[in-house]
Amino acid sequence: MSVQVSLERMSEKVAAFSKFGALEGGGITRLSLTEPALEARAELKRRCEALGMEVASDDIGNIYATVQGTEDLPRFVMGSHLDSVRSGGNYDGIYGVLSSLEAVETIITEGIPHRHPLTVMVWTNEEGARFEPAMMSSGIVLGKFAKEKMLAVTETGGTVTFGEALAASGWAGDEKNRLNKKDYCAYFEPHIEQGPVLEEEGLEIGVVEGVVGMVNYDIILEGVSSHAGTTPQRYRKDALRAASQVILDLWGKLGALAGDLVFTTGEIHVRPNIHTVVPNYVKFSLDARHRDMAVLAQVVDVIKGLPQEVYGCKLSYEEHWGRNTIEFDAGLLGFVEEATQECGYSYKRMYSGAGHDAQYVSEMLPSVMIFIPSRGGLSHTVVEYSTPEQCAHGANVLLGAVLRADAAL
Amino acid sequence: MSVQVSLERMSEKVAAFSKFGALEGGGITRLSLTEPALEARAELKRRCEALGMEVASDDIGNIYATVQGTEDLPRFVMGSHLDSVRSGGNYDGIYGVLSSLEAVETIITEGIPHRHPLTVMVWTNEEGARFEPAMMSSGIVLGKFAKEKMLAVTETGGTVTFGEALAASGWAGDEKNRLNKKDYCAYFEPHIEQGPVLEEEGLEIGVVEGVVGMVNYDIILEGVSSHAGTTPQRYRKDALRAASQVILDLWGKLGALAGDLVFTTGEIHVRPNIHTVVPNYVKFSLDARHRDMAVLAQVVDVIKGLPQEVYGCKLSYEEHWGRNTIEFDAGLLGFVEEATQECGYSYKRMYSGAGHDAQYVSEMLPSVMIFIPSRGGLSHTVVEYSTPEQCAHGANVLLGAVLRADAAL
Q: What pLDDT was estimated at residue B330?
């Protein structure tokens, strides 16, 4: 087996960064550009500089810590984000940064020669928990969102704008430092799976082929509100009864499509939502994801084929945003898979159901992701957990893939 | 046909009182003891005194406007409330007051002899829309609620207590004026049906035999929250899917009990209620009402027989308050029915599904209610409506029933 990262050092990194925004009883709240996030940034900078890396930031606070290579080649970049959701955990995002740092630290401290410069990266405000939307900075860099519009976004539940928080952070650097096609040639993003598949199947690594496409709809039932005590059942047009029927029908019909289609009715709004009044209005969300866009087209057909009336209630739907399936780079995927095999880890090729900065980056640079298992499939919660060994496995795969790419590209 | 109320005068009363708290576009907001409610009280007092009635109030602001009879007998009392819900209509509550006033005005202006004193009554804060709970004042008079505790209740969405509002209103009178068993011997409450039955069956009057009993439960489903994009359907424990199934099962099972059982799942709370997260917690209300307590016992059996697990989610339930069925006075019911027949109005004997002050009063005095149709079965809405003729019909039935009772009791 080739060179390995240090399990102890990897674990120390996770433990050290778990302090920034730590909550009593475990987990963290480390919203983008808040004090705990700035402490984590400062600690990362200190560690990178101690390794002799040069730390820069671009105009939206994305961090690039670089160690030079032996040749004048474009850089490899690897990382993720260090912000969390409210009451989040110690792995989602930060693991990608720390495993990248551990891989580079191994290369530096072991004196492993590398032709390409290697950059550890942090994306600002990936979660969107403080400033909507999620993946804001990679979206800006890839031209998905207008920077000026994003700078004007006010924090959820507060008064500070993203622009104000950025200016106050001291991390607003030069626009020319942004990730670009000329100076970089490959992007690697390790991440926790955020789902149960690896754990359930007893696998150590997910070699991530892409990010699945998705569709988002709201489904609306409109009935008539009436008094709970005085309206015989036969006269009722109960929108919650109708919505319940539609939710179960969707489970039946969508469940009969591709077996690995995922769909979720996660959000529901009921009016007037008073226990003595028959609901006259229900709106619920439907989120469906699959790598095969033809399957998503079938989902849309199911939605369009829903009856116009359910238990006397009018059914309508609204389409929201969707995304096409993103395919990661076949060459990088090969390096990741070979590195996984060389380490002797069990693995599967799989798609990410969640969105990641890598999906935007993949439009600019060859990109790939590496998943490690999430205990119970949980993320965005204080109990999210991956074992020290799992964390080290992901870093080893990254290290191996980077060195293979370095030799080949 | 015996003496009749005046259709014009009845209509004028409804129109005149519709101004107090009027909303642009129709309907009213006349929360208890707010300025519009005090204006309505002042107008009622003015009208009663103009008819030679003596107006008094008790210590919680209930109004008693009395015209003496020819003998030293206990009083008949008739009325309802003049407060409304937010964005309510011009009939729920106030119709009972105004039809009572119209019946008494007819007796006075036509010089109809009557042995018993006749009292038109207004209950303070029936709706509970400003100060919870509903039927607060009849509840205090009947010993359901402690007065001191009620005085301390703070208005919904504000800072004023019921006690402060009462003191500021000028309507806090003498406790000895409260409705009591010695000075009063019969209670009549006209009201809109608040349901669709009379309209659907083409009937003019509901002779109300009582108020149906009810049970209230919360039903809780506890699953596991997980990411919408990364959790295969087979691993999900989706509390909203489970709740949808239980709601439909309840419709099936409760719908197979007595045909006139009414049940409602009107309120639902979902956590985390985010479109990208599988819900891990759903709580919904179940309100079931029937006059036969044995049927309500069957409802409870259905709830207790629900499975403990639904789609992997744990099911539990919490019992909240209930009430036994209230039976109104058979003698007064007979007078109401005879008066209805004498007027030649189509009618049915029926139970009230909604709660009314009459249900508390019936524990102290012989009581009865008279219903007129509600257009579309609607109440607690700006569009609630009964025709002038329907309003006059109810007042005629009240008039006839009061005169029959006056002769007989």
A: 98
Cβ–Cβ < 8 Å for A346, A403: no
- Residues of chain B with C-beta less than 8 angstroms from the C-beta of A195: 226-227, 229-232
Asked if B276 and A289 come within 8 Å (Cβ–Cβ), the reply is no
Facing A265 at nearest CB: one of B240, B265, B267: B240
- A264 pLDDT higher than 70: yes
**pLDDT tier, A1 (very low <50, low <70, confident <90, very high otherwise):** low
Q: Is B2 domain-assigned?
A: no
One domain, residues A185 and A316:
no
**Considering only CB atoms, which chain B residues are within 8 Å of A287?**
228-229, 275-276
Total tally of structural domains belonging to chain A:
2
Q: Are residues B111 and B255 in the same domain?
A: no
Contacts (Cβ under 8 Å, ≥6 apart) of B381: A225, B27, B87, B88, B89
Please give the ipTM for the structure prediction: 0.81
Please give the DSSP secondary-structure letter assigned to residue A156. Answer: T
In the block, which residue shows the tokens 């109440």?
A: B379
Cβ separation B226–A275 shorter than 8 A:
no
- Neighbour-count burial for B24-50, b at 16+ CB within 10 Å, e otherwise: eeebbbbbbbbebbbebbebbbebbee
Claim to verify: residue A200 and residue A225 sit in the same structural domain? no
**Within-domain flag for B367:** yes
CA B76 to chain centroid: 20
Q: Find which of B211, B276, B381, B382 to mutate to test the A interface (most A CBs within 10 Å of its CB).
A: B276
- For residues A403 and A291, membership in a common domain is answered with no
Angle at A46 between CA A45 and CA A50, to 5 degrees: 115
What the block records as the tokens of B204 is 């003019």
pTM score:
0.82
Does residue B1 belong to any structural domain of this protein? no
For residue B230, give the nearest of A194, A233, A381 by CB distance. A194
Residue A52 CB neighbours (<10 A): 9
The minimum CA-CA distance between B69 and chain A, rounded to whole Å, is 37
Q: Which residues of chain B have pLDDT under 50?
A: none
CATH code of the domain in which A219 resides: 3.30.70.360
The residue among B200, B201, B219, B226 with the most chain A CBs within 10 A of its CB, best to mutate, is B226
Chain A nearest CA to B154, separation (Å): 20
CB atoms within 10 A of CB A316: 12
Tell me, what amino acid is at B403? L
Question: Does A380 lie in the same domain as A263?
Answer: no
Domain hosting A273: range is: 213-323
Look at residues B265, B293, B323 and tell me which one is the last residue of a structural domain. B323
Query: Are B290 and B372 found together in one domain?
Result: no
